[in-house]
Queue: 4 jobs
Job 1
Amino acid sequence: MEQYNTFKQEDNIIIHTRLLDAPRDLVWEVWTNPAHIKEWWGPNGFSLTTKSMTVEPGQTWDFIMHGMGRDWDNVIEYVAVKKPSLLSYKHSGAKSEEYNFIVSVLFEEMEGKTLLTMKSVFKSKAIIDELNRKVNAIEGGKQTLNRLTDYVKTLVEL
Amino acid sequence: MTPTRDVFQAIADPTRRQIIGMLAGKSLNVNAIAKEFDITRQAVSLHVQFLNDCGLITIRQQGRERYCEAQFEKLNEVTDWVNQYRKYWDNQLDSLESYLAKIQKSKP
């Protein structure tokens, strides 16, 4: 199964794949049902509260992550929803529209298992390069403790 | 012990993050660290061992005390954004995978 667990960057797209040992309908369910998603979404040690979730194009998943002693508001806007094969969403939390990116999650059946492909599409490769430079600058320049906090923050805001 | 644990696992836990934070300013012995937490000294000791296994801290014997010192160069493993993103989703998908295994097992 390992050969299906891949990662690559192609220009402005970051692609993750993972073969999951579960039927596609169930994998779809754990991505789109608040009771399931809270069990696996978010950094370790964080908990999650869903304020609302409407899995339809143009609708949102509005949720709070609890961790590191505070609450982190998050909103995801669904762009395309084709049960049970495609879920695509946009993060609207970024400070600037430029940094927003769309994640498309493809669910494919493969001999009773599910091949998950996540494509994160950025406005341009330049945006990814800029994010890399910014993170490098943060890593290089700040106090360790701030770096840690920033790091965890980047995780929460993904 | 072979360092199969990485920095990302180390900082995934809130208690360990707090310990790293405490060691950012000064080296401390395990007792001094344990005093700051409501959990047992033994539990704190395990977290300290974990951080040691990841190479994030070193433990130095001084007389009867064991002093912990931060080794923050290790945090530079957290390199660029794409790498962070990759690691983050690797962890997320691990978490998804084990959750799927769990709910399928519990079914009759």
Job 2
Amino acid sequence: MLNEDTVTRVKLAIYGMIADTGAIPNSMELAWATGLAETSVREAFSRLHVKRLLVPEPGDSSRIRMAPPFSGIPTAFPVDATGKRYYANCIWDAYGIAAALHTDAIIPARDGYSGEALTLEVKGERPIPQPYVAHFAVPAARWWDDIIHT
Amino acid sequence: MLLFRSEESVDRWCETHNVPRRPLIDLQQLWQLAVHWYANRLTPESRRPAADEMVSIFASIGLTGPFWDPKSDQWKADG
């Protein structure tokens, strides 16, 4: 069983590589980056999933679907920051990427009903005011029942 | 959760998808949630807030009641 320091090492490698590239690494890339066996990296994925810091790709334990606030696949919530494009899991996580990276960001979002373009911006670790609203369809007690849907 | 231009747009979305309207939050509240959840996510000590911490965070930005309580059992039947 991996010790906690090793799990933390994998966590930091995941987030460091995402911040540097905009892409979520897979278990092979993380094994290479950390010097750990790929089986150990996958065990770390499971441990981080229990901590709700990671969601493995359904049906493929070598890949990460979500390392909140980052998404492992392109989504309707892109975030342009530090000269790269990141993808968030939802509009909360889109702001979360700017918060995690402590950087200015442009978020080219869309109205959930009409699809109209609604641009959000973060500057100096503050959101530029807009009269928009976010709607939470799922109560907090059920967010992790199906976190990919939430 | 989704972003909308206005409350009217939320209402239309709820009608179209036949789902009840739930709480709305403004962008300042959304940003504060993002900071609470993710500002230290790239650090060794980062972790997801525990349930009781979540309740305190929500309350600090004016979000109270069972909808914002991760331990609430009120939502088991209707989601």
Job 3
Amino acid sequence: MIDLVAFIPRAIQQGIPLLFGSTGETITEKSGNLNLGIPGVMYVGGICGVIGSFNYEQACGGNLNGFLAIFIPIICSLVGSLLMGLLYCFLTVSLRANQNVTGLAMTTFGVGIGNFFGGSLIKLAGADVPSIALTKTSKFFKTALPGAASTGWFGKIFLSYGFLAYTAVIIALVTSYIFKHTRMGLHLRSVGESPATADAAGINVTKYKYFSTCLGCMIAGLGGLYYVMDYASGVWSNDTFGDRGWLAIALVIFSIWKPDWGILASFLFGGLYILYLYIPTGMDHMEVKELYKMLPYIVTMVVLVITSMRNKRENQPPESLGTNYFREER
Amino acid sequence: MSENAVSFKNVTKTFGELKAINNVSLDVKKGEILSLLGENGSGKTTLMNMLSGIYFPDAGHIFINGKEEVIRSPKDAFDLGIGMVHQHFKLIDVLTTTENIVLGLKGKLNLKEAEKKIMSIAEKYGFDIDPNKKVYDMSVSEKQTVEIVKVLFRGADILILDEPTAVLTPQETEKLFKVMRNMKKDGKSIIIITHKLNEVKEISDRVAILRKGEFIGMMITAESDEQQMTDMMVGHSVKLNIERKEPQDSKPRIEVKNLSVKDSQGVYKIKDVSFTAESGEVLGIAGISGCGQKELLEAIAGLEKIDSGDVLFTEDNGTKTSLKGKSPRAVSDLGISLSFVPEDRLGMGLVGNMSLVGNMMLRSYRKGASPFVDRKAPRKLAEKVVTDLDVMTPSVDTPVRRLSGGNVQKVLLGREIATKPKVLMTAYAVRGLDINSSYTIYDLINKEKESGTAVIFVGEDLDVLLQISDRILVLCDGEVSGIVDGRKADKNTVGLMMTKKGGENNE
């Protein structure tokens, strides 16, 4: 049997980057923008945080100020992913480029940027292994809540995470509240459903699209930062982020565009993602592990089939998702 | 204070080369209902869009309540108390009535309070409205109600209704007119865009007429008749009668026997429908939109799977063939032609991005033995259709998408008629067309009938159905409520039959 007290925290840590990514992408998609650049954005969010903290660590030579050690990487990460968001919006909203192509290009672009700067930093650091370790900064990010160690299984499951993990959950809950109960949420949903209608109702479609896509990118970028600073303990090496960005996009569908469902869904995905490590297969049957790794994707496909079969209008993607709005087109 | 709610002074708007609105000056008085009449492309909607902030005029001035205003966006229009109900409803399907109505407003979101205000508006003017219903569950007339209440909710004093009756049954239209009269009593100014002259007569105080972007004249409704209005609108005399000749030498052409069709969810779309369409006659099909007309035609054309029942086609020599299970191609090879004009006009039948010639080829590309298509014959056909039916197009190589609605329909019908069909099925052939084009289409249909074609004509406008059809089949919810003689039936009976299933309680 799996040791749940050990497994659940691991699953949640695995799920947090996905939660950041999927909340960000949900906000974006609610405005009708299908940003397939999320994997690239998260990658950029990660490397920008690394660049910031690398420079800070170098500058003050080991005596880190706790506040700045957290503040600088976060700001760098937010700025990096904001720039990616602005680029995406400029291309798709202002220039009306195809969203799918732009998104895919952004992913390639983001990963390229990440690897370029990652490689350069590794060269600068002059380490023997192809990675940079920012363990000092990471310590601040990983600080658990007080009482995590002293309250047994409760502390392990609920209190043992860094502050970014709690931030992710709070962001998801707040987003969900905004969607349901505020005018801003109502307007954002209407922009994604039918921009022409929103426009006729006097809602600034361009503003909403820019705002939500950029905000979504910034939130997703934090996922990349969490991955490096907390999950990977401050160790950056190129291409280890893997397919988490795509998984975050799949999560949006899985949680049928509901950020509060996304919290549990991302923990579930996190669990499925690492399940293979906990299933004893023996050394003879490594191929079985590969099958387990498919689980998150299979679950997403099943959910897609089920939601489209049930055919409830509320559970469908925003109607104008993936299309650009041009007022004078008739 | 001026007594004019709206004044246009020398307003001009150009789209590219085209002068959509040319130097128009026009007043709307306070507390009046003004009809805006004009053919397709005469600029009615464009003019109104400038009032509601969707377009911005290139030149000229707009005065609201006597004061010159600049309307740059729909929001500016709301602020001035101008509200427009568009022809295509601007509602969000997944939201409720209330949510749709408060969309775009400022301040804290308080749905309970909004609901109260909606109910009080509904009571004041006599609307039927359910504040918690989702738009995707609504009928067309319910959606329209939401649109109108939305405009009133924002405190609009000037309402613009763009072809509000095009999609309503006679009973629903009556209800709408009642509400409009209540609003007028309340001092609101209403501008209604419509093609239907009888409605203009019934509801409006004055009529403004536009032709090709120019203001032609203003008439007091009570002092003018339909013939005068049409003549002004078209610019020359038009005969307003549809020539209906007695059917000659009628023989059963299509026999539909106990036909049933289910949709993908297993719900009956057509249930136990039987009728005969004869050669040389027009069989009208009446019904509220979406109660099986489309499925019925598609089942005959082989596009929809027949669940039970049969469709028999009688050839000239008397042999009967069952169309059940035949492919659409086999059906059309027998000479059964379907010209279906869907709501978006393109869609079925024509490819928007292809030229006229290309669209003609859709029917003819299979002809000939060589692997190369023949481009000459379709080009000739396209040119013939353009000259015969007076299609306004720069050339036969223009994409169909760029033509106006009436011209698209002419191209579609022209192509279908050119194949010399034995059965011509047409649905909504004049949807959204102005009077002149409509009558061209009616003429075409009557000519087809005279040449011995069996015509099945699905229509929305009961007046027209009654004028053109020899017999009318009335559908309600996929079932036949009855078949009436087009020469004897009257509008109210047919209207009632449309709402009563199977024709029961129809004494």
Job 4
Amino acid sequence: MIERRRGTLPAGTAAYVFEEATRRRTAEERIVEKLRAAGYREAMVPSADYLAPYVPHLGAREERELYRFVDRHGDTIALRADFTVAIARHLAPRLPADEETTRLFYRGEVLRGGGRDGSSAEFYQVGAELLGAGGAQAELEIVERCAESLEAAEAGAIWLVLSSVGALDACLFPLLGEPDTRDLAKAIRERRLQPVAEATAGLSPERREQVRRLVEGGITPDDPLLASLGTAGESLAAAARALSRRKACDVTIDLAETPSRSYYTGFFFSVFGQEGGEPIAGGGRYDELYAAFGKPRPAVGFSLGLEALVRS
Amino acid sequence: MTAALTLALPKGRIAAPLADFLARPPLSLGAFEGRRLVADVPGKGLRLLLLKDFDVPTYVRRGAADLGIVGSDVLAEKECEDLPRPLEFPFGRCRFSLLAPAAGEPPPEGRALRVATKYGKLTRDFFEERGIAAEIVPLAGSVELAPRMKLADFVADLVDTGETMRANGLAEVEKIRDVAPQLIVNRGAIARRRREVFAFVGLLARMLGPDHS
């Protein structure tokens, strides 16, 4: 017998009607108009797919957050939890070998996590991807598209936090002078002052001050810490300088940030709005994903959740 | 004028030692008056919220509070250990343990163990790691009573002095994890108000003494 619940919704889902629905759709249309004008073409992927091709690209948390079921044929199906991997899987076989760059955007629901503390499980995402372009210029283009999209949705002031996978460990190695920086890096990512103080007690005051800046995360483009990162540091500094020219946009570099998706391989960023504890948008570089689907090429993208933008 | 930083404080077990700590100079915070649940602290740039401890991580994660203080037991149970947590406090520490009747028959074989607890996730994780079949009996309080009333074979709960445990005829079988109050911060507050947040964290660290800053 099918259980009947009439008055409530499944945990983490919501319905929108009338003004709320209109506001969301208006924001979406404005964002899409901007992306189209910038040369991005739409990609559509199924809202449910076989789980197996996605498993190698899922971290432990991402796998736990999936909604999955066994279909009538006995195959395990996952509901779409993320567009990026789905697009790579469906787009890679169709990508021409000679196309230098591909710009695409997507929109639609994703379902993941949520529930226990009343947090959302269903998000309506709009995002864009730039395939076939490595380097800082492509990363800057994607962050600019993200900031423009938020502006089009009238998100108000934003706080951009830039980071890079592996950068924290790369900074710590010369500071500590020993190869195993994992425990200290973990304490810094958790911003835990006491274990950080214990691990750095033997360092010079200058080096302890550098570690403090890593914990607190307000790193400026001129910070010598970035110099130890080579190209990654130069890219972060250049992006921070360029983006700080935007209006109503605070930019900082925070190497203690943890990437939101496990497939990020280098530069990544989060965007916070005027309220709320979680980012309203984010993105990053994922240069290994397309190789896994047979068409190696660098890639960088962003996504934003409309719910957080137009919440009344 | 800059808006106040919002700090969520827990009612319950750690409220009294926490109030003693926050009353120390230079913070010198007074106690909540009457039945008020929110209090602005003049001259300190702080707004205090008084919440049930299990609600503190929700307020902080969702940005209704910039910072919060809550036990590591609650953070783990609510799957909020990924929140930045700059400080651990030396007071209000205890342990989360598995308890069983001090006397009496062992639980019958051939069925899953029944364990009464307020901490369903932590308890389930503990038994799963050991490959032991356990049926969780979720309770909101007075869990020590459950074995006596044949509702459960074991109890998983916090043990401080052990007085409540012994008064209810229970003994500690195994410590599951140590518990300590933690200061937690939401990521949005760090992005938007980095200097103020870490200035406040630094103030609390200095109040804790030289080992904590």
